[in-house]
């Protein structure tokens, strides 16, 4: 993906500094999207595992086993109960660390995006570059969901 971006940017008349910053911005956006996907998948895994555990406990209750603690202990003696518990724990851990990565990636992306917006006049220093800036920003908006028009 980054190779395509580099080729597209090399076709447009922009300063080398702007090209470097835009490539880094696209890279950070992709990192943010990857962290978002990780958080969503870990959340789904955790919810499914928790649902399996809870449904198993309710099933045991409906079969006449009235002690909830006993049902939980029995649940962990069968292989699928152990698998669901481990999946739930791993999913929750991945969800927590993934969320931290997502927040960090979002902050890094926003910081660079704000810097690009604030330094627009410096990065697009000639009249020709300034006029093609709008097309480049529209392309980034459409292809990468990166809004550089305003803060």
Report on the architecture of this protein.
This protein has 151 residues and is mainly alpha-helical. The protein has a domain at 18-119. It has six helices and no strands. The protein has helices at residues 2-11, 16-62, 68-75, 79-118, 120-123, 127-144. The chain is rod-shaped. It starts with a helix and ends in a 7-residue tail after the last helix.
Which shape, going by the Cα principal axes? rod-shaped
Could you name the ranges where pLDDT drops below 50 across 5 or more consecutive residues?
A: none
Alpha-carbon Rg, integer: 25 Å
- Give, in order, the helices and strands: HHHHHH
Can you summarize the main beta sheet? none
Look at the helices and sheets and give the structural class.
Answer: mainly alpha
Q: What is the helix fraction of residues, given as a range?
A: over 70%
Portion in strands: under 5%
Q: Alpha-carbon distance between the termini?
A: 25 Å
Would you report the number of β strands? 0
Mean pLDDT: 86
User: What kind of assembly state do the chains in view correspond to?
Assistant: single chain
Total DSSP helices = 6
Transmembrane segments: 38-60, 72-96
Keywords: Coiled coil, Membrane, Transmembrane, Transmembrane helix
Organism: Thalassorhabdus alkalitolerans
Coiled coil: 95-122
């Amino acid at each position: 993906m980054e190779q395509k971006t580099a080729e597209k940017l090399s076709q447009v008349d922009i300063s080398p500094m702007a090209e470097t910053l835009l490539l880094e911005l696209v890279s950070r956006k992709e990192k943010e999207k990857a962290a978002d996907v990780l958080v969503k998948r870990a959340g789904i895994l955790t919810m499914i595992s928790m649902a399996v555990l809870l449904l198993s406990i309710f099933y045991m209750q409906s079969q006449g086993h009235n002690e909830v603690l006993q049902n939980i202990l029995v649940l962990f003696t069968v292989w699928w109960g152990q698998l669901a518990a481990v999946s739930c724990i791993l999913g929750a851990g991945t969800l927590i660390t993934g969320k931290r990565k997502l927040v960090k990636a979002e902050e890094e992306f926003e910081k660079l995006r704000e810097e690009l917006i604030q330094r627009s006049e410096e990065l697009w220093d000639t009249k020709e570059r300034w006029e093609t800036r709008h097309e480049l920003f529209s392309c980034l908006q459409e292809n990468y969901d990166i809004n550089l028009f305003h803060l």
